[in-house]
Specification:
The protein is globular, with a radius of gyration of 18 Å. It has helices at 13-26, 46-54, 71-81, 101-109, 131-148, 164-168, 180-186, 210-230, and strands spanning 3-9, 33-40, 60-65, 86-89, 117-124, 160-163, 190-196, 235-238, 246-249. It has 250 residues and is α/β, with parallel strands linked by helices.
Length: 250
């Protein structure tokens, strides 16, 4: 299988049906794919509605957490269970338009895809958020870029595509999904960026506020900076017969 689309869902019952239908329409031209919705300990009807959709969409899979583990944990579970070599993630609140998926995964699925391309990161344009959320995001992205030098203006965008094997080799921690460009670069992978559209939330309510993001983000930022300083990237490839046993790239 080429592509697995992984979406974390927590109390997103109102968005299940429209999200699945939009993805089905947007990805009709993409063969060998699956959609994995990870119900992260929802207390509403999210899981039941996903099961109902499976009868209509047999390529839809449901994973469930018995309790809420957070967005990074849900993404990690989905990637571990995925069958595709390339993973695409987006948020379950309908703010990331599924119509952007083909554009995001194209560089990784291309026959001539660079061997060292690990991540294609979406960057939102014309964000449909409140002014306070946009301001908080701008400040946080500026601080992150200054500390990590990750050459990314918007790591909070849920639309990302990456190699499954490269992602699973990253150090796992809570909120890691916000630092994927820095973490992929740390491991020696090339990171590409694609501008993507953004829209207002569908149903449900936001799971975070600006204060929560700020308090968690500061702690995580110093942790990621430490990981980058401690990194020593060596990637081994099988050598030709008669050649050296290992070829290291770092």
């Amino acid at each position: 299988m080429q592509l697995s689309i992984v979406i974390p869902m927590h109390n997103e019952a109102e968005n299940v049906a429209p999200l699945v239908r939009e993805i089905d329409a947007a990805c009709a031209g993409l063969p060998d794919k699956e959609l994995i919705l990870v119900d992260d300990g929802s207390s509403d009807e999210t899981a039941r509605l996903i099961r109902e959709m499976q009868a209509e969409f047999p390529w839809l899979r449901l994973l469930q957490h018995t309790s809420a583990g957070g967005q990074s944990a849900a993404v990690h579970s989905g990637v571990q269970a995925a069958r595709g070599q390339v993973i695409c993630t987006l948020d379950g609140d309908m703010q990331n338009p599924p119509s952007e998926i083909p554009k995001l995964v194209a560089p990784l699925l291309a026959a001539d895809a660079p061997a060292d391309l690990g991540l294609v990161a979406g960057q939102r344009v014309r964000r449909q958020d409140t002014w306070s959320k946009r301001l908080a995001s701008k400040l946080a992205n500026g601080l992150r870029a200054w500390m990590l030098s990750d050459n990314t203006r918007d790591t909070g965008c849920g639309l990302k595509a990456f190699r499954r094997d490269a992602f699973l080799a990253l150090p796992f921690f809570n909120h890691m999904h916000r630092y994927l460009p820095a973490l992929f670069s740390r491991d020696g992978w090339q990171v590409a960026h694609v501008d993507v559209s953004h829209r207002e939330r569908g149903g449900g309510t936001s799971k975070y506020n600006n204060l929560q993001r700020a308090l968690v983000g500061i702690h995580d930022l110093f942790g990621v900076a430490w990981l980058i300083r401690r990194a020593k990237t060596v990637r081994a490839t099988e050598a030709d017969a008669g050649g050296p046993d290992r070829e290291a790239a770092g």
